[in-house]
Amino acid sequence: MSDTDLRLERDPAQGDIEILSQGLGDHALPFTHTRGFQPLAVFARDSRGTLVGGVYGHINWNWLQVSLFWVSAERRRHGLGSRLLGAIEQEAIARGCTHAHLDTFSYQARPFYERLGYEVFAALDDYPSGHTRYFLRKAL
Q1: CB atoms within 10 A of CB 72
Q2: 48, 140, 29, 133: which is closest to 95 by C-alpha?
Q3: Pairing relation of β-strands 63-71 and 99-105?
Q4: Among residues 53, 48, 56, which one has the least CA distance to residue 83?
Q5: How far apart are CA 59 and CA 35, in angstroms?
Q6: Do 118 and 138 contact (CB within 8 A), yes or no?
Q7: Does position 90 have pLDDT exceeding 90, yes or no?
Q8: CA-to-CA distance for 103 and 75, rounded, in angstroms?
Q9: Do the beta carbons of residue 70 and residue 53 sit within 8 Å?
Q10: Who is most buried in 21, 25, 89, 127, counting CB within 10 A?
Q11: In the chain, what are the domain boundaries?
Q12: pLDDT by residue (tens digit) across 31-71?
């Protein structure tokens, strides 16, 4: 249509992103018969209430998609990451998920995920330059 204006937005409004998500969900619904992209998060806080770790993702039909996963440097290597990932996986299972997927980089946590049962199914070399981005999956 000639009256359509394209605009690059470096800081898009959350409401606009929600419209995209709703539109994708509406399009998929006749095929999937259930809504995808249901948000899910588990957060870890210290005794003062400060966020020290968390995992965030979406349930897409029967898959858990882990989008963000972080543990503060001083809390790493003490089991918190395993507890966080286990908690979101258990909730995903309770909601009907049978699989999970996530991605990580060569300078991050690939061995951690592999110890927890994830397997690499794809990789992008030189992403970022000099590193590799790995995509992993796991049967829940």
Answers
A1: 14
A2: 140
A3: parallel
A4: 53
A5: 9
A6: yes
A7: yes
A8: 21
A9: yes
A10: 89
A11: 36-139
A12: 988 888 899 999 999 999 999 999 999 999 999 999 999 99
Distance of CA 80 to the CA centre of its chain: 17
* DSSP for residue 34: S
| Close Cβ partners of 69 (under 8 Å, ≥ 6 residues apart) | 54, 55, 56, 81, 84, 85, 102, 109
The 3-class secondary structure across 71-131, one letter per residue, is ECHHHCCCCHHHHHHHHHHHHHHHCCCCEEEEEEECCCCHHHHHHCCCEEEEEEECCCCCC
Q: Kindly report the CA angle at 51 between 17 and 9, in degrees rounded to 5?
A: 20
In CATH, 36-139 is 3.40.630.30: yes
- HSE (side-chain half, CA atoms, 13 Å) at 100: 26
